[in-house]
Target: Alpha/beta hydrolase
Amino acid sequence: MEIRSSTVLPARREPIELHTGDGLRLVGELALPPGRPPVATLVCLHPLPTHGGMMDSHLYRKAASR
Model:
């Protein structure tokens, strides 16, 4: 398979919510390989939404699609 700019690899994608010890709620997306357990983990943190960052940045979306 050739991976191009519009490629979205198959994955089980589901929303995830984490709660911090100081009461904050972090939201994101968990992408797991279909049909088998994951063999590695990559965590990407985006800039603060209060300072112009957003979870749906095209860079993070492209990385999550691969």
